[in-house]
Write a sequence for this structure.
């Protein structure tokens, strides 16, 4: 075969594997939103069969051979589609090839056991029931990082699965700067005598009206409902069943506005990214999201920088008052704006406000790092957790269930995943700044309910890049800057200065 | 391999193929109920890839070899699971093997073209636009019947795809007896001075209340909503996504009671059959429905023999009055019973009442037969259609769209399919008779809303048999009789004698 033919064969096979992956996504989506309860066992068989087929195709040695041949002619700096495809797939192939099948299988079993143990331990509020499973997970992940190999730290290998080509030492230094600035800001806010009336958003908001209002907001920012859906699940998510089929979910609380509404904006932000990827490259690195951090930057940008801005509510608040007259008829815009931006240190990450959220993430990142350097033992995790919450947020978990056991991630073996949440916040602030500079009157546009220029900026500077560039290269090319916590801090300071008269 | 090992290998492979088929069912279900519009193209790619894999596995020559080896040791009369599996799969394999790939592909293309042509021709009310496509379909089907071979008639081969081991001459003779009795019955009804007030069921029935009421009725007759769902589609259907995952749909008309309610009972009847098959044999002939006629017998039995009976409404009418006070508060049970059983010859099969329905089907069967004997040419179809409607039902189609072009089946190459609808009616009446004899006070039980004994009788006499027996053998073993139109006629005469004072 000529190199051109080899490349085309590789692309065809990869796209075909992506078709199977997209079908697996549908099986997962259906399981979480539609499937009747008794179908669970057979659904597991369906997913197992498909996963097996996908895995077989991914590690096929012929594929490795094609990739190696093609890579010889490619410069590692190239951003041509074909080159990007070869380099990204080769990297993934070589990484997977290094992990022994025995380890894959052991890890897979350990996750199932650990997940169930976590569910039970969290219910019983007993970390010790979960600890041996977590030890196994950490042990197996260490074997994995050893098998793959690393230069600076084992944790880099874990991080690379979610935030490719990002060094944990870089993350650590930006997180430490962020923490150093966030802690005093949150103290200042706590000491302010201004307190938004947060009861405003805890009034009756009929669910049907929340659905209509949330859907219209998702539409307004650009989420295409002819190429997507919005459904209800307890744990909100965004999943992609095809290049024109992005499905998001949310949950409704009839006495709380924020959960569903900002949840919808958040997932719609993820959805806009997926809908903005190059559809003709679906299933290839050129049509795939760059990293989880970049993905999260899109959801946080729309949820917070847009959705929690004064400008946004200048446009949407009168509409919200029409939709929820009982709750909002006599509320002034400023009070509502304060209520949706109220800052209060709390125990649970997923319920945290915009200012404290990153601290929850940084705590997990620090603990994960310590576990993998060996500075921290699994059994000492609850104490270390509680101490860090006390130091960073000034609060002490009332139980392990509301502390170290609150998140599902570790039970599923997801180490190196948490930092992408806070990276998302930082990227978002940097993107938003640059978009505002490029567009000029972004605030005015948002206040008119006009989101096309912002979306277009994100489309061309982020979405359309796919995985052609690394996260740091996208950041550099879109903003002219490298990773920094400054734009995030400037943004937060400005917002809270107004609300809390800092 | 020993014969036992060969059988196990065959079973494992067949079950694995069934997993892929069940995933394809989910893709289809999702497409018809959930999928966003723009996802259609990629959905086609997903389905095409999966179909290809399924086809490859089905015609795998190693499979044929296993089957041939195993079949040598099996008696064709055996009803042991292993033997049934081998015989049914071998028959299917040998049938498919005889059809040249060229023909499969040509037919597949012809169907796509014919379907679109049918949609357009129906809209334009111009049969001549559809005729050449229908000619191609008939020509290719004749090639198929020639390739497979037959003893009595080519039509037998077509029928065998839907009603295995059933001879069209047998169907023809029972249909002709049925027609000879139905035509005068319908005349008598037409001449009766009693006329039910059919406006009762054309009053406002709020859709949300129809959903609740219909769902509760489906639950009451035994449809398991933890192993199934009910959704909304324009064309109602029942599909099976796994052994504990049967999904039915209906459509709602806010000013018409029958469409959704009897549609739900009909599809739930199909669903009860699917839910009653042996779950551990899912994907094998032992856990598969016997024939389309037997499938239809279950839907028609619950829709009509149960759901349109006086006993049924003795229990459900007070509940219906509670659910639909505006429409039914002051309606006597007898009037309602008459209204849901009103007989009136009409042009459209899917809207036909219980008495005239089979005549619609018999007309199609007669025309299909004539097309395949060569006694009728495609171009003469509209005239022959209209003449038969005049003769059997005393009405003349006002257009081809409401006549020969009304059904989708022929455009999809489904010849030999229609007769299973009327066979379903006949089987249903025979089953219902025998169940009533076996149970004793079936009417009383139905009047108390007690459906378990009837369902149990169907479970053990029909559902649990799967494809182990042919339709005629199931009929024989369950009722002690062979196919007959008498129970159906007795049942109809009795019902209409009361309503129309015949």
């Amino acid at each position: 075969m000529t190199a051109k033919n080899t490349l085309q064969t590789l692309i065809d096979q990869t796209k075909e594997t992506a078709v199977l992956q997209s079908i697996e996504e549908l099986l997962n989506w259906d399981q979480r939103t539609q499937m009747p309860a008794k179908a669970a066992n057979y659904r597991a068989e369906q997913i197992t069969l498909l996963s097996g087929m996908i895995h077989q195709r991914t590690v096929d040695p012929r594929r490795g051979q094609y990739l190696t041949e093609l890579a010889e002619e490619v410069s590692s700096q190239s951003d041509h589609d074909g080159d990007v495809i070869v380099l990204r797939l080769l990297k993934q192939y070589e990484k997977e090839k290094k992990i022994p099948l025995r380890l894959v299988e052991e890890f897979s079993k350990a996750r199932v056991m650990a997940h169930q143990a976590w569910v039970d331990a969290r219910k019983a509020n007993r970390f010790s029931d979960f600890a041996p499973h977590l030890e196994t997970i950490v042990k197996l992940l260490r074997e994995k990082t050893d098998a793959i190999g690393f230069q600076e730290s084992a944790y880099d290998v874990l991080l690379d699965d979610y935030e490719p080509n990002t060094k944990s030492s870089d993350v650590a230094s930006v997180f430490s700067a962020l923490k150093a600035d966030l802690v005093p800001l949150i103290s200042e806010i706590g000491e302010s005598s201004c307190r938004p009336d947060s009861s405003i958003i805890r009034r009756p908001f009929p669910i049907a009206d929340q659905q209509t209002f949330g859907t219209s907001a998702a539409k307004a920012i650009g989420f295409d409902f002819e190429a997507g859906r919005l459904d209800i699940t307890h744990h909100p998510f965004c999943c992609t069943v095809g290049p024109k089929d992005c499905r998001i979910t949310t949950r409704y609380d009839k006495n709380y506005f924020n959960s569903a509404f900002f949840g919808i904006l958040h997932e719609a932000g993820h959805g806009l990214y997926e809908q903005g990827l190059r559809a003709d490259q679906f299933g290839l690195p050129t049509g795939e999201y760059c990293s989880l951090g970049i993905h999260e930057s899109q959801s946080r940008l729309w949820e917070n920088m847009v959705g929690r801005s004064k400008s946004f509510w200048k446009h949407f608040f009168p509409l919200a008052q029409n939709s929820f007259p009982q709750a909002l008829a006599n509320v002034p815009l400023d009070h509502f704006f304060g209520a949706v931006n109220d800052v209060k240190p709390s125990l649970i990450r997923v319920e945290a406000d915009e200012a404290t959220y990153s601290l929850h993430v940084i705590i997990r990142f620090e603990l994960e790092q310590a576990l993998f350097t060996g500075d921290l033992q699994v059994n000492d995790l609850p104490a270390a957790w509680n101490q860090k919450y006390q130091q960073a947020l000034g609060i002490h978990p009332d139980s392990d269930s509301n502390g170290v056991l609150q998140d599902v991630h570790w039970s599923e073996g997801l180490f190196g995943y948490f930092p992408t949440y806070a990276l998302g916040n930082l990227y978002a602030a940097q993107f938003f700044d640059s978009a505002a500079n490029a567009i000029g009157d972004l605030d005015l546009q948002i206040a008119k309910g006009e989101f096309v220029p912002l979306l277009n900026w994100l489309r061309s500077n982020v979405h359309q890049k796919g995985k052609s560039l690394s996260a740091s290269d996208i950041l550099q090319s879109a903003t002219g800057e490298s990773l920094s916590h400054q734009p995030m801090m400037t943004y937060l300071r400005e917002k809270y200065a107004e609300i809390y008269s800092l």
